[in-house]
């Protein structure tokens, strides 16, 4: 089997500081968590920014620039900047930082969808579910807008013009067909790095059969021009990403996707999750790719 890429998604835009004291918020915390993750074995760092004043997701390029150069200077990991930002941000805001930073990689979300606050599930200790209040009190209906025009625009602005390659975020089977559409139009070229996303309410659920089905259809659509990775929300993180490693895929962990290191125990930093999945995949006989090996595998500009 080929080498395995560990992506670490350091902070994201979904979890709130009230959910864990260990969620990195400031530039220093994001830098330290990113470096720790790289030292623990992360090949790719998937990055969002936050406003250090209040911990809210931020699209301000200044907030990104407060940590990107430091991380770049202190480690050789591949830097991947989110173009998803948060579901409430307008597209131009989401693209402001990646346009300025011109990273090797960016995320690209492959469809418009509902996006419910999945961490709510981990907060529920009493499983008598209250259907009057299915989500956290302060959550609201979120529509994560990623139309075909939005996607084509991102591909052009960050891919064509700035040489970024993409982590194609596929939350559903339909997103694979959307990606195939862009391949057929010649707007996307392999090798593709497809992130199968499980457990976001609005996307596919964390059932193992969904992973085998996604892989089967991706094999049919993209043949040997793609590799896949898996991320799964909350308590589904480790089981699903382990299954990916078994099936020959790559893995993504990090506090963006889950705040926990084991049942009921908060991860103290991103490195803990990276170290855990590294142990698991090495026990399974996989070898973790270095950043330069990933650059070669995914045809990154370096
Ligand atoms: N938050 C994840 C479910 C993005 O940044 O573009 C997907 C994600 C999206 O990482
Ligand atoms: Zn993200």
From TrEMBL:
Protein name: 3-keto-5-aminohexanoate cleavage enzyme
UniProt keyword Membrane present: no
Enzyme class, broadest EC rank: transferase
UniProt cofactor(s): Zn(2+)
Keyword Magnesium among record annotations: no
EC number(s) recorded for this UniProt protein: 2.3.1.247
Gene Ontology terms for molecular function: 3-keto-5-aminohexanoate cleavage activity; metal ion binding
A Pfam family hit: BKACE
Domain of life: Bacteria
Record keywords, A-Z: Acyltransferase, Metal-binding, Transferase, Zinc
């Amino acid at each position: 089997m080929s080498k395995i890429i560990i992506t670490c998604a350091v902070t994201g835009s979904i979890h709130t500081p009230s959910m864990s004291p260990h969620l990195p918020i400031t530039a220093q915390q994001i830098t330290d968590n990113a470096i720790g993750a790289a030292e623990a074995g992360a090949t790719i760092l998937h990055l969002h920014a936050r406003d250090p004043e209040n911990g809210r997701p931020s699209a301000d390029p200044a907030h990104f620039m407060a940590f990107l150069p430091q991380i770049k200077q202190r480690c050789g990991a591949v830097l991947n900047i989110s173009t998803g930002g948060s579901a409430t941000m307008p597209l131009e805001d989401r693209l402001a930082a990646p346009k300025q930073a011109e990273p090797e990689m960016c995320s690209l979300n492959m469809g418009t969808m509902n996006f419910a606050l999945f961490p709510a599930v981990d907060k529920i200790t009493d499983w008598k579910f209250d259907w009057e209040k299915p989500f956290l009190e302060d959550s609201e209906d979120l529509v994560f807008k990623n139309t075909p025009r939005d996607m084509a625009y991102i591909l052009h602005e960050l891919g064509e013009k700035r040489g970024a390659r993409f982590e194609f975020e596929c939350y559903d089977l339909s997103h694979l067909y959307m990606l195939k559409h862009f391949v057929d139009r010649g707007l996307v070229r392999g090798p593709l790095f497809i992130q199968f996303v499980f457990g976001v309410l609005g996307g596919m659920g964390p059932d193992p059969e969904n992973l085998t089905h996604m892989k089967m259809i991706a094999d049919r659509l993209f043949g040997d021009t793609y590799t896949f990775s898996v991320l799964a929300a909350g308590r589904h993180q480790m089981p699903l990403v382990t299954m990916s490693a078994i099936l020959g895929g790559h893995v993504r962990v990090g506090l963006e996707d889950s705040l926990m290191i084991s049942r009921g125990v908060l991860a103290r930093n991103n490195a803990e999750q990276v170290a855990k999945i590294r142990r698991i995949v090495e026990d399974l006989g996989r070898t973790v790719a270095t950043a330069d090996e990933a650059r070669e595998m995914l045809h990154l500009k370096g």
